[in-house]
Design goal:
Strand content: 25-35%
Radius of gyration: 26 Å
Helix content: 10-25%
Structural class: alpha+beta
Number of helices: 7
């Protein structure tokens, strides 16, 4: 088997049957094309099996994806059928493009609303719609990408200094570290529940119960829908507790003040949903949201407090709800005066 590697930036792999988007688009400068000649050992093999043996450094799924997406040429023509048989003397060329995941941890300049920063850390007011960390479906345009562009030290830190997260459609305050020492200390503070996080949440239902109450119920994967979280039996979930205070209620809905004692995935959304008070705009855990005057779950992290990990100074920040959240309160006649006592 003869193999050679070349780096190309302007030419497609094959002619004739190549997809138009490959033919008409200049290839990324990091694209690598490997060409090889099929030897006697490979004669008669399926194309996908041959590729796995020829390129053991790549996973089978990566190579299959390369074939199906038109990144492989056999004797100068696109080959998209994994079952195609190869013969002695055939020339195989495969274009190895960087995956979306491999490109995720790159600096992308973006506007960040900085509530506070010093040499050790920064507190950010995250808008709704901004994903915190790259993941399938959101490999770019995340807060992590913005941190890598804003802070030189971010590239040397795990997750660019991110120590906790907010859901994509949750707005509000979160802290990120600028140094490894600060990051380790913040992680320790969060683990020992010494970081105070308070939220405002709106449900599209009136409230007629106690003005202050707690929900203490374990959270785990919903056995009926693995894409959701749910209150589950104690043996199959992680302990979770949220304290709630009714700020105001009307015939249209209720405004809650929520204090986290644990930080489980979707904790407030799941706990409120479990008592029949799902968030307005929450299509995952709530009702049909078409008539809700907000296009995302009505959850805002309005208060954050902890003792500074370097200076030992007690710090607390507040941020007003964004425009869409404030408009919801106005439409439903819910009053809010910040800061809320006890936050």
């Amino acid at each position: 088997m003869k193999q050679k590697t070349e780096i190309i930036s302007t030419a497609p792999l094959a002619t004739g049957a190549m997809p138009a988007d490959i033919e008409d688009t200049e290839l990324d400068s990091e694209t690598e094309v490997r060409t090889l000649e099929v030897g006697i050992a490979g004669h008669g093999q399926r194309l996908d099996h041959f590729l796995v043996e020829a390129f053991p450094e790549f996973s089978r799924s990566f190579l299959q994806s390369a074939v199906s997406s038109g990144c492989l040429a056999l004797n100068g023509h696109a080959a998209t059928r994994p079952a195609t048989k190869v013969r002695v003397g055939d020339e195989v060329a495969i274009e190895l493009r960087p995956t979306a995941k491999s490109l995720a941890f790159r600096a992308e300049p973006m506007h960040l609303d900085i509530a506070y920063e010093d040499a050790s850390l920064a507190v950010i007011n995250k808008p709704a719609g901004l994903v915190v960390h790259p993941a399938p479906g959101n490999w770019s345009g995340t807060l992590l990408n913005g941190l890598l562009a804003r802070y030189e030290t971010a590239g040397n830190l795990p997750r660019a200094g991110i120590v906790h997260r907010l859901d994509k459609d949750t707005s509000g305050l979160m802290v990120v570290a600028k140094t490894r020492e600060t990051m380790d200390r913040l992680v320790g503070l969060i683990a020992t529940r010494l970081v105070s996080r308070h939220y405002l949440a709106v449900s599209p239902h009136p409230w007629r119960g106690e003005r202050e109450f707690s929900v203490s119920a374990p959270i785990g994967r919903d056995p009926k829908n693995r894409l959701r979280m749910a209150v589950v039996e104690s043996g199959s979930g992680k302990p979770a507790r949220t304290d709630f205070k009714v700020v105001d209620s009307s015939s249209s809905g209720t405004l809650f003040h929520c204090a986290l004692h644990t930080g489980r995935t979707h904790q407030i959304r799941v706990h409120l949903g479990s008592i029949g008070m799902p968030l307005a705009g929450d299509a995952v855990y709530g009702r049909d949201t078409a008539r809700d005057p907000i296009a995302r779950q009505a959850l805002h992290a309005f208060s954050l407090a902890f003792v500074h990990p370097t200076s030992a100074t007690p710090l607390r920040w507040f941020c007003q709800p964004p425009q869409d959240f404030a408009k919801l309160l106005e439409i439903w006649g819910l009053r809010y005066n910040a800061p809320i006592a006890g936050a």
